[in-house]
Design a protein that fits this description.
With 109 residues, the chain is an all-alpha fold. The chain has one domain. The chain is 74% helix and 0% strand. Helix 1 packs antiparallel against helix 3 and helix 3 crosses helix 4. The longest helix is centred in the middle third of the chain and has 25 residues. 14% of the residues are buried.
């Protein structure tokens, strides 16, 4: 059975993060570089991606699609079950990679 409440809570959080990000996001990369809200934008992106990953993990667990060996397996399991497209699985993997860059400051974002 799908844990509807947890998914709806995560979607509400994601919506809140994205609304807040829309209010402070600079309109260009050049503006972003000079922005005092740069760290806030990065943090909101990070937690937005984490909310998406959490939703995917809840779906995999609730639908008993198998135990993922690593985080990327979550997206593969959803694609194999026909719940998302292969292209969406690739996009989600790239989002997770970007989140990792933000978290670990690879190359000083």
């Amino acid at each position: 059975m799908i844990d509807r409440e947890r998914i709806l809570t995560k979607i509400a959080q994601l919506d809140s993060y994205l609304n807040e990000l829309a209010q402070i996001a600079p309109s260009s990369f050049e503006e972003y570089i000079r922005s005092i809200e740069k760290k806030a934008c990065e943090r909101l992106l990070q937690i937005s991606v984490e909310a998406v990953i959490d939703i995917c993990a809840i779906l995999v667990q609730s639908l008993r699609l198998g135990l993922p060996a690593e985080e990327d397996d979550i997206f593969e399991k959803l694609a194999l079950a026909g719940l998302i497209s292969g292209e969406m699985a690739k996009t989600l993997k790239r989002m997770k990679g970007f989140r990792n860059i933000l978290v670990h400051e690879y190359g000083r974002v």
